[in-house]
Amino acid sequence: MSVRVEVKGLYEAVLLIERVSRIARIHWPNKALDNLAKHAKQKMKELVPKKTGKLRRSIRIESLPDARKIVADTPYARIVNDGARPHYIYPKSKKALAFFKEGKWVVKARVHHPGFVGYDFLENTMNYVYDFMYDWLAEEIDLGEV
User: Fold this and answer.
1) What is the reported pTM?
2) DSSP letter, residue 59
3) Which of 50, 62, 114, 138 could bridge to 69 as Cys pair (CB 3.0-4.6 Å)?
């Protein structure tokens, strides 16, 4: 996108620069933020694992006055992203845990969770947005000949 403006006279030039600056401060940043947030949300939804789809459906954009926040709104989103160390799981309200394993019921006072490596979908989304933003801004800002 290229813009060419011809102004004769210093006073007219100052007025034009102030007007363009005011419009750019109001509209362009919001357009850019909305565009980046939309792409970040889409990419994050692609990167999260789909077991039940609840985490993927919880991803949304929150608009703030001068920012956009992409939110993955489930209690376990951080664990899916960061992973979990090996740990024991204890019953919360009963004396034992009961579950079905290899065709029979098993009852235990505690079970060992082996842990897992996280999916790191937040960092991967941010890397994508960084690359996208660089390419998008290069297209939007065409300085032409100076």
Assistant:
1) 0.67
2) E
3) 62
Residue ranges making up the domain that contains 71: 10-82+117-140
Distance CA 75, CA 52 (A): 14
| pLDDT in the model for residue 139 | 72
| Tally of structural domains, the chain | 1
> Over 66-133, what HEC string results?
CEEEEEECCCCHHHHHHEECCEEECCCCCCCEEEEECCEEEEECCEEECCEECCCHHHHHHHHHHHHH
The whole-angstrom distance between residue 19's C-alpha and the CA centroid of its chain comes to 33
SS3 at position 53: coil
Chain position carrying tokens 């899916």: 80
Q: Residues 27-49: pLDDT tens digits?
A: 667 777 888 889 999 999 999 99
